[in-house]
Automatic annotation (TrEMBL):
All residue ranges annotated as the NAC-A/B domain in the record: 82-147
SMART domains in alphabetical order: NAC
Protein name: Transcription factor BTF3
Region (Disordered): 1-44
Gene3D superfamilies associated with the record: Nascent polypeptide-associated complex domain (2.20.70.30)
InterPro entries listed in its UniProt record: BTF3, NAC_A/B_dom_sf, Nas_poly-pep-assoc_cplx_dom
């Protein structure tokens, strides 16, 4: 059945087709016109503009930083000394350190003429890793405080600094120490 108001159209091959687009030229009812009347472009334009506005609003909500966003403070993680000690002990265990017993004291001499003194320390060593650890209570003392018992541990550098200390000592005291002679 053919509608009187709709003329037949020819396709690219020159064959006649009905407006409905069915092959063979058969008549089909026409589709209703697009929404909004005969001018189909205007509603689509409004729709795309509204979609862009909605997208802009959604993008504004997702943004990171900038003006108007909530400020989050950086979370500070406090590490305890026991956690650090556990990590250190785990690392030493991986190195394969062994305890060395029988060490009563450890003295470390600094360039400033002071001594870092450990009394009854825990000493561990790993010769393969070239690692030595000294654990215990450390005290920083002046070389003059440790003098009588430390003389046999002094090296050549420490002896020269001790000589300078001995020469400066009588000048600082109100009364000189009698009978004190220095020989090396």
């Amino acid at each position: 059945m053919r509608r009187t108001g709709a003329p037949a159209q020819a396709d690219s091959r020159g064959r006649g087709r009905a407006r409905g687009g069915c092959p063979g030229g058969e008549a089909t009812p026409s589709l209703p016109p697009p929404r909004g009347g005969t001018r189909g472009q205007e509603p689509q334009m409004k729709e795309t503009i509204m979609n862009q506005e909605k997208l802009a609003k959604l993008q504004a909500q997702v943004r990171i930083g900038g003006k108007g966003t909530a400020r989050r403070k950086k979370k500070v993680v406090h590490r305890t000394a026991t956690a650090d000690d556990k990590k250190l002990q785990f690392s030493l265990k991986k190195l394969g350190v062994n305890n060395i017993s029988g060490i009563e004291e450890v003295n470390m001499f600094t360039n400033q003429g002071t001594v870092i003194h450990f009394n009854n320390p825990k000493v561990q060593a790993s010769l393969a890793a070239n690692t030595f650890t000294i654990t215990g209570h450390a005290e920083t003392k002046q070389l003059t405080e440790m003098l009588p018992s430390i003389l046999n541990q002094l090296g050549a550098d420490s002896l020269t600094s001790l000589r300078r200390l001995a020469e400066a000592l009588p000048k600082q005291c109100e009364f000189p120490i009698s009978g004190f002679t220095w020989s090396h």
